[in-house]
Automatic annotation (TrEMBL):
InterPro entries: CheY-like_superfamily, NreC/VraR/RcsB-like_REC, Sig_transdc_resp-reg_C-effctor, Sig_transdc_resp-reg_receiver, Tscrpt_reg_LuxR_C, WalR-like. Gene3D superfamilies: 3.40.50.2300. It comes from the Bacteria. Pfam families: GerE, Response_reg. This is Response regulator. The modification 4-aspartylphosphate is found at D55. Keywords: DNA-binding, Phosphoprotein, Transcription, Transcription regulation. Residues 148-213 form the HTH luxR-type domain. Residues 4-122 form the Response regulatory domain.
Length: 219
């Protein structure tokens, strides 16, 4: 089964390049292209792609608002959204991830990382560009922590290990390799952490880990 993708970017040249990269993958099918935020919202709502790849700065609606409407906390059937941009400003990164994005890439990340992010989002995982992850960790370290929710059910020792790796931006596949366990086992632990912490995504898991002092920003 091909991963169905809608690509949204207001720059024709950039959009064409993204479509070419993704279209060259044997298991990816670009099913729609949008040149602004409203068109992206309409196309994604009608076509229900497996992944929406959206630029953060577009006319009409920006990528953060598009993401919030398709994958935000109030959405009952959230879509997998990967945000891509030339700007790695903290407010863009955090805004997109808090809006429900499953990935965040800079446009200079390269084809390989782009394809990895699409595959990760389609499989329920998340990929954030490594340089962006480092910035996020610094941002978490510098901000005043919120009062973390205490889980009703205790977090197991193995879940603590998974929690720390999620907070450092590792994908499920990387966590599986680090801990020498199966991918399905990691997914089970991540799902359990989301349930115990009331988190909707990996970013909220990471923020909880930082707020409770489990992960420091310099790691």
């Amino acid at each position: 089964m091909s991963i169905r993708v809608v690509v949204a970017d207001d720059q024709d040249l950039v959009r064409t390049g993204l479509v070419m990269i993704l279209g060259a993958q044997p298991d990816v099918e670009v099913v729609g292209e949008a040149a602004d935020g409203l068109e992206a919202l309409d196309l994604a709502s009608r076509l229900r792609p497996d992944v929406l790849l959206v630029d953060i700065r577009m006319p009409g609606l920006d990528g953060v608002e598009v993401t919030r409407r398709l994958a935000g906390p109030d959405v009952t059937d959230p879509m997998a959204v990967v945000v891509i941009t030339t700007f790695d400003l903290d407010e863009y990164v955090l805004g997109a991830l808090r809006a429900g994005a499953r990935g965040f890439l800079l446009k200079d990340a390269g084809p390989e990382l782009l394809v990895q992010a699409i595959h990760a989002a389609a499989s329920g995982d998340a990929l954030i560009a490594p340089n962006v992850t480092r910035r996020l960790l610094t941002t978490f370290a510098d901000r005043v922590p919120s009062t973390p929710v205490q889980p009703v059910d205790p977090i197991t020792e193995r879940e603590e290990e998974v929690l720390a790796l999620v907070a450092r931006g590792r994908t499920n596949a990387e966590i599986a390799a680090d801990l020498y366990v199966g991918l399905s086992t990691v997914k089970t632990h991540v799902a359990s952490l989301m349930t115990k912490l009331g988190a909707r995504n990996r970013v909220e898991i990471a923020m909880w880990a930082h707020d409770t002092g489990r992960v420091r920003g310099d790691h």
